[in-house]
Each structure stands twice: as structure tokens, then as C-alpha cells.
Amino acid sequence: MSRPQEPHRHFLPFGNPFRRLSPKGYLSPKLLDLLNTFEDTLAGRIKKLKPAGKEDVLQLSWMRVAMETLCEIHTDIKTLITALELPVSDWDEKWVDVYLDDSVKLLDICIAFTSEISQLKQGHLFLQCILHNLGGASKQPARACSSLDGWKQHVASKNPRFNNCFSAMDELAQKLDLPKIKNSAKGKVLMRAMYGVKMVTLLVCSIFAAAFSGSDEKLMDLQPTEAFLWADAFADICSFVNTEIRSLYSSGKVTVLKELEAVDTCVKKLYPMVQEGADAVEAEVLQVSTSDLGKSAEKLSQGLDLLAKEVDGFFQIVLTGRDALLSNLRVGGDGVRSNNKVGGPFFS
């Protein structure tokens, strides 16, 4: 998974895109209906994303649903753009620039997440060795102990790719100035819809970063204006999930991914048994503990595989979107853009 390289550009920020407009900026009935439909749909998707309970926060199954939701929301914005009948040739150059910059950062974030998932999946090899050396009639506790040590060291290791992820998220969140939208009611609708997409995208990315990095430092308490139909649902899930994650870390937990924590618990339970030697531990107790580890390891492996698939799907939406915008710019002609740019993140 890799992304195209291009010079640094300015980002379309997460500030209120209507802060320079009158509260009742004119929109035709058709445009107002399109906007309200989009915002109602976005509110519904956000509500469904809220975990059923605290125990569901940072389960891999919930994270997979969160990434699926991002894919759906980015598809929704594509549908809105089509309905607006706003061809790329009519776009302000600044709009194209900020979309290109958004997509680069989203690609960096996806690459970081994929790298972390791959690193966790590599740890499954240690778990398989543990299970192999503790299974069957001929147990090898010394080798199992070595694999247990290897697992602990692997899980504790830091992923350097996350530095790119953090810097990308910081840039997405910190630049708050927006270009003025002049003489384009359709542009105003697009910017307002894009604001919602960006808010949800950044929230999900910050939650993933907190889960993978072992720290709540990069959690973002984003606060949308109340003028948006999805604002209450967004504030609710942001507060609920962020509060629970901070609670988990403040309690001293190093691992907050639920399936990973379950494996770690099994490893800690097995470790003293293996150190004492297989003969010193009742066979039934060792067998049960080994079986528990096997079940937890399989659940973790399957969860990571499914999550990796969804992250890759989102990556492809962003990447193919860039290509689509570039293609439209070329068809539009007039030399508006050079050929070294690719399309924006919300086209596919």
C-alpha cells in the first residue's frame, strides 16, 4: 500500500464552513432538500456507530464497523456531488487543492493503520509457537517460554509509522481558515456537507490512533456547531467513546484493544505455569489455559484480518477518488491542472 507523492498543499479545515455566511444564507428548495437529506443520513450513520455499551468500545468488531461507516459516508458525499450537478470544471481551484491535500493525509493515516495491523498479525506467529509447544503429549516448556517472551516484546514494541499518522491528523485539525464561497450556492452546500464528512473521519482516525498507539494523547474532542443536523449525534459518540478510552488508560491499561487484551491476559496466566515446568502443573489446568489462549488468539487473528480488509477498502476509496478527479480535470481541459496531480478524496 503506497500513495503518490506531491508537494505540500493547504488543507480544508474543520472549522464551521458557514461562519462567514449569514445564518439563513439563501438556498433553493432543491439544494436545501439535498443538504438536509445528506445531513439526516449522516446523523443516522453516526447514531448507529455508537457502541452499545462500554465493553464494546475498541473491540475489533466495532472498529471494523467504524471503518465501514467511513466508507459509506464518503460514498454519500459522492452521491451528493452527483446530485448537485457540480462538474469538476466548475470547481474553484482552491477546492481542488484542499481535496488533494486531504487525500494525501488520509492515505498516510491509512498506511499507518495498515502497518500497525500487520505488526499485530505478525505476533500471531509467537502465539502459534506457544500453542504448538504446549500441545500434544510431548510438551516443550522451554521453547514455549521463549515464545511467550517473544510475544510480550513484540506487543510492547513501537511502530515508527505512527509518527506520520499523528502529524497528518494534527495538520487536518489545526488549520482552521476556510476560503470564502462566493456566488455558488452549490459550493456552499458542498462545503457544509464536506465539513461533516471531515469531522467524522478525523474522529474515527483519532480513536484508531489511540487504540493502536497505547496512548490517549491524540484523542480529539471535536465540537461541531449546533447548526448541523448531525451535531448532537456526533457530540454524543465523541464524548462516550473518548471518555471510555481515557478511563481505560487512566486505570493503568497498556493494551486497550479488547481482543488483544484477552490474549495478553491468557499469556500472563500461562507464563508462570510454563516457568515452573509442565510436570509441576496439573495437566488439566495447563490444558485449559492453553485452550483459552488458542481461542483468544484465533479471535484476535480473525478480527485483525477483517479490520485490515476494511482499512484497505477505505484506502482504495481515497486513492481511486484522486484518480477520478484527475481524469475529470483532464477531460475538462483548458490546462487548469498539471498532470502530476490526482483526484480528491471524496470521489470514486
Please outline what is shown here.
Helices cover 67% and strands 0% of the residues. With 348 residues, the chain is mainly α.
Give an overview of the whole structure.
This protein has 348 residues and is mostly helical. 67% of the residues lie in helices and 0% in strands. It has ten helices and no strands.
Helicity level, as a percent range?
55-70%
Q: Gap between N and C termini, in Å?
A: 18 Å
Number of strands: 0
How big is the Rg? 24 Å
Average pLDDT, to the nearest integer?
83
Number of DSSP helical runs: 10
What is the N-to-C order of secondary-structure elements (H for helix, E for strand)? HHHHHHHHHH
Task: Please specify the SSE layout and strand pairing.
Elements: H1 29-49, H2 60-84, H3 93-122, H4 124-134, H5 141-156, H6 162-174, H7 185-213, H8 231-250, H9 258-276, H10 283-332
Helix pairs in contact: 1-2, 1-7, 1-8, 2-7, 2-10, 3-6, 3-7, 3-10, 4-5, 4-10, 5-9, 6-7, 7-8, 9-10
Summary tags:
single chain; 348 residues; mainly alpha; 10 helices; 0% strand
